[in-house]
Design brief:
The protein is an all-alpha fold. The protein has eight helices and no strands. The chain is elongated, with a radius of gyration of 40 Å.
Amino acid sequence: MRAKSLVTAAKTEPGRVALLALAAIAFWALAKPAAGMTLPPVPDHAPVPTPLVMAQAVESMPEQMRTATIRAIQETLNEKGFKAGPVDGAMGPRTRSALRDYQRKAGLPVDGVASKDVLDHMKFARPEVSAGTGSAAPKQVAGDPLTRDVQRELLRLGYYGGAIDGLYGPATRQAIERYQYDHGKSVTGNVGQDLLEELRGMKPGQVGTTGLRT
């Protein structure tokens, strides 16, 4: 009976039957994947984006972390001879000035901004940066023990004939330059702990032939 009515409908309304047939074919094609087509497997664990870690200035740190970081920076600056003042955890003008001096010596951007990155640089950078290194003449105070020891070693090796007073003056600078020239070093005239250790390992008369001795 139903088939008979479909035949009757096809005879009386052929356009409607054709549209229904096309709709059925389209639905079947969309509902079923194409032959040979496979969907990609879903991974068990989707990758998690790695967060971008930026250098954090102390001003943006929690109070306890900020104070601890500044104290560590002050202590390290003082150990390296940059005279940051009291280790009080406060970022005052003296600490900021010492930090700029360190950045200048280390070849970093001179902005006086304290951060965990600059603290890590102070602790782990090699070669180590101190107030006595670099191209600028070191700022020495009267009676500086390091300068006094360098003068004493230069006197022992025959390069210095002045007073052992710890004052970094022209005579001390020239004596260092003569020593550096004799031994093929970079002639800077700077006082530093590395220079002192080198002088202590030298014997009198262990010099070249190009330098002058006092």
